[in-house]
């Protein structure tokens, strides 16, 4: 990836030199850097907010209620994970964070879920099917309300930032369905 960035920057500098547009290149560099910092701070705020809410939910005990509510669905998907295992709670929180489009905030929750699933793994040197299933669901990231993207679009002045909700939901449901089908197909062929 570093090579790609180096090539893009080099081509930009050469093109600016050949066309005599160093001023435009410099302005674009500063505007791009400013936009990157603004987006990073915006996303940092969302991640901090979600992790704070998660901590409050955890400390108040509400996390167990949320986990119990989603337990039938999660235990149906993750059949070998005991219903009372901490992995159920971690998986639930991760999938909820993804469901609300908070992918960056879902990352620490996903790491915790994988650690919890690893405690159930008999073969520590390889991944269990449940770990693979979780990675597929986490990566497909079904999103009902993509708060991060809607926020970024609104921040950049979009006239209809919520216009992406339905296409995002459709795309993520389809991608999750295809990914799950492929995973189960591989599981069946590997037996």
Description of the structure:
- With 191 residues, this protein is mainly alpha-helical.
- It has one domain (41-190).
- 79% of the residues lie in helices and 0% in strands.
- It is built from eight helices and no strands.
- The chain has helices spanning 2-19, 22-60, 62-77, 86-99, 103-118, 129-140, 147-155, 165-190.
- Helix 3 (62-77) packs across helix 4 (86-99).
Distance between the termini: 37 Å
The radius of gyration is 21 Å
Structural class given helices, strands, pairing?
mainly alpha
The total strand number stands at 0
Overall, the morphology is globular
Share of helical residues:
over 70%
Mean pLDDT over all positions: 84
**What is the chain-wise order of helices and strands?**
HHHHHHHH
How many discrete structural domains?
Answer: 1
- Supply the number of helical segments: 8
Low-confidence stretches: none
Can you summarize this structure?
By secondary structure, the chain is an all-alpha fold. The protein has helices spanning 2-19, 22-60, 62-77, 86-99, 103-118, 129-140, 147-155, 165-190.
């Amino acid at each position: 990836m570093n090579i790609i960035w180096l090539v893009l920057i080099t081509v930009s500098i050469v093109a600016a030199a050949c066309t005599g547009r160093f001023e435009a290149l410099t302005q674009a560099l500063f505007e791009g850097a400013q936009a990157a910092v603004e987006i990073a701070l915006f996303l940092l705020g969302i991640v901090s907010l979600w992790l704070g809410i998660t901590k409050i939910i955890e400390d108040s005990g509400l996390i167990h209620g949320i986990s119990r509510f989603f337990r039938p669905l999660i235990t149906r998907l993750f059949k070998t994970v005991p219903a009372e295992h901490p992995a159920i709670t971690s998986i639930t929180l991760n999938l909820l964070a993804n469901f609300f489009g908070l992918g960056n905030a879902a990352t620490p929750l996903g790491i915790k879920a994988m650690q919890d699933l690893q405690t159930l793994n008999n073969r520590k040197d390889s991944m269990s099917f449940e770990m693979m299933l979780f990675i597929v669901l986490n990566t497909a990231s079904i999103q009902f309300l993509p708060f991060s993207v809607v926020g970024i679009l609104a921040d950049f002045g979009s006239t209809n930032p919520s216009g992406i909700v339905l296409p995002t939901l459709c795309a993520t449901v389809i991608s999750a369905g295809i990914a799950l089908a492929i995973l189960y197909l591989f599981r069946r062929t590997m037996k």
